[in-house]
Amino acid sequence: MNDSMSNDEALEALAERMRTAASVAVITGAGISAESGVPTFRGDGGLWKNYRAEELATPGAFQRDPELVWSWYDWRRGICAKAEPNPAHLVTARLEDRYKDFLLITQNVDGLHGRAGSRRMAEIHGNIWRGRCTACGDVFDTPETPLPEIPVPCPSCGGRARPHIVWFGESYDSDLMEGVYRFLMNVEVLLVIGTSGMVSMPVVLADQARRAGAFVAEVNPNPSELSSLAHAVLRGKAGELLPELERRLGN
Length: 251
Ligand code: OAD
What we know:
The chain is of the alpha/beta class. It has helices spanning 7-20, 31-34, 47-50, 53-56, 59-64, 66-82, 87-95, 112-116, 174-185, 201-211, 238-249, and strands at 23-28, 101-106, 121-123, 126-133, 139-141, 161-165, 189-193, 215-219, 232-234. The longest helix has 17 residues, at 66-82. The strands form 2 sheets. A 6-stranded parallel beta sheet has the order 3-2-1-7-8-9, with helices on both faces. A 3-stranded antiparallel beta sheet has the order 5-4-6, covered by helices on one side. Helix content is 39%, strand content 18%. β7 (189-193), α10 (201-211) and β8 (215-219) form a beta-alpha-beta unit. The mean pLDDT is 96. It binds 2'-O-acetyl adenosine-5-diphosphoribose. 2'-O-acetyl adenosine-5-diphosphoribose is lined by residues 29-32, 34-35, 40-43, 46, 57, 107, 125, 165-166, 193-196, 198-199, 219-222, 224, 237-238.
């Protein structure tokens, strides 16, 4: 990382690349939704400070106690339902219109990017507003919160459904990831927003994009596993820095 750059210089370096780029990718993590009131996972007030991941976000946990797992997700769904997309989600959605080649890769399951208008998007950890049947594999929407029935039954076959989330110990969707890898092979600018990189996929993806020649920038108020990979580091809140970036991009 170029630590000697001020935020202003980093913003300008990023904006300059983005003004002329034809292809841009954005990777987001929980930090982009923090200003919407959705708790992050690590750090002060993070979910994994108060809850044990292995009791709630693993296939074993679901097998042991599906009611507990669904109830915990339904509590989180309640928080997401009350949250509104913030300026960082809205700018990310508008960036899509500027580029012929654009992809948003999000680890977030809260659905806020979709509500902000993002369409060219890979939700690599799934979506909290969907369920998936453990019997027939059907993936379906679960828009109601509180849920009318827990554990949720599959609307197609009545089998036991689970949250459509990639849990600890599970693999990513290989078709989805193939598309992501392919896109990053040719991307000119990669912007990584609000992720600690403790779950390492963003680091793997940013490393690949950088090797393929992309300019990599990070937006995060704190140092992360991504910082040393970034050509430009913007220290601050996404909801403040993204509107400033958009202003500098001009029309
Ligand atoms: P983390 O909670 O690990 O990291 C959140 C990051 O957001 C931290 O680096 C914060 O410094 C940063 N941050 C906080 N406020 C911010 C703001 N206003 N603007 C920008 N950044 C801010 O979240 P993730 O890296 O997304 O997986 O976690 C990855 C995965 O771990 C999650 O998707 C989740 C979790 O286990 C599943 O549940 C499947």
